[in-house]
Design goal:
The chain has 8 helices and 7 strands, in the order E-H-E-H-E-H-E-H-E-H-E-H-H-H-E. Strand 5, helix 5 and strand 6 form a beta-alpha-beta unit. It has one domain: NAD(P)-binding Rossmann-like Domain (Rossmann fold), CATH 3.40.50.720. The chain is of the alpha/beta class. 45% of the residues lie in helices and 15% in strands. InterPro entries: NAD(P)-bd_dom_sf, SDR, SDR_fam. Pfam families: adh_short_C2. Belongs to the short-chain dehydrogenases/reductases (SDR) family.
Length: 265
């Protein structure tokens, strides 16, 4: 049962064909929202759409192939959402993954690529959908960010720096958009089950270990107090709260979804 009724509202999720994005689409559909989601991989997007339509046959659902780093593509996505579903009142920015590198081995090109990905995967969708959001009551933007924004790791220097900038961007947009009735918040995720972790699991040296054993040891090495990796659905719950009117008096803030891994105040 959905924790809030979102019938009559339109939500947009970037990077929605797998992981946290997909779990967020599911939760929004359960609550009755019309949902548009995008991704770069057309095959993965089609597969996700098929599964969602099987589960939610009556849903108003739009799947659109789009590279969020391509401004014309993002603008075309926004125009299609408005035409087919109506003006969006919720935008969830969920795109990008981590880059493993130290300061010494991060090239200029890698710095540019990482900063461009993290910032413009948010800037372009916000620019494209802001006019729609401004036309809706209690509109919201949610940015999926990482605990690295507050707790950087030396082996992920470029990603940590970019994530910190996104945390600042969320607060800046929240201040600027508040008079227009658009709230902006984010979540800070720790280690969450994903395709990336599944691929590392498949490459494990101790082949006798199953997924719970392998991730349990990983959580122990990473000193996660709850002793496990997070689930995409758990991150989606936090996103849902911030995107929906459940958080109508919350803007410029971040929810920590790290299983206690956070050491920052």
């Amino acid at each position: 049962m959905a924790i809030y009724d979102l019938h009559g509202r339109v939500a947009v999720v970037t990077g929605g064909s797998s992981g946290i994005g997909y779990a967020t689409v599911e939760l929004l559909l359960e609550a009755g929202a019309a949902v548009a989601f995008c991704g770069r991989d057309s095959d993965r997007l089609a597969s996700a759409e098929t599964r969602l339509r099987e589960r939610f046959p009556a849903a108003r659902l739009l799947a659109h192939t789009c590279d969020v780093l391509d401004q014309p593509q993002v603008q075309a996505f926004a125009e299609r959402v408005a035409s087919e579903l109506g003006a969006a009142s919720m935008l969830v920015n969920n795109a990008g993954q981590g880059r493993v590198s130290t300061f010494a081995d991060t090239s200029d090109a890698a710095w540019s690529e990482e900063l461009n990905l993290k910032f413009f995967s948010i800037i372009y969708p916000v620019r494209a959908f802001l006019p729609q959001l401004q036309s809706q009551p209690d509109a919201s933007i949610v940015c999926v960010n990482s605990l690295l924004a507050s707790q950087p790791e030396p082996h992920m220097v470029a990603t940590s720096a970019a994530r910190a900038g996104i945390k600042n961007l969320v607060r800046s947009m929240a201040f600027e958009f508040a008079p227009q009735g658009v709230r902006v918040n984010g979540i800070l995720i720790g280690l969450v089950e994903s395709g990336q972790w599944r691929r590392r699991f498949e490459q494990r040296e101790q082949r006798e270990q199953d997924w719970p054993q392998w991730t349990g040891e990983l959580a122990q090495r990473k000193h996660i107090p709850l002793g496990r990796l997070g689930l995409p659905s758990e991150a989606a719950n936090a996103i849902f709260f911030l995107a929906s009117p459940l958080s109508s008096y919350t803007t410029g803030s971040h929810i920590d979804v790290s299983g206690g891994l956070s050491r920052h105040a």
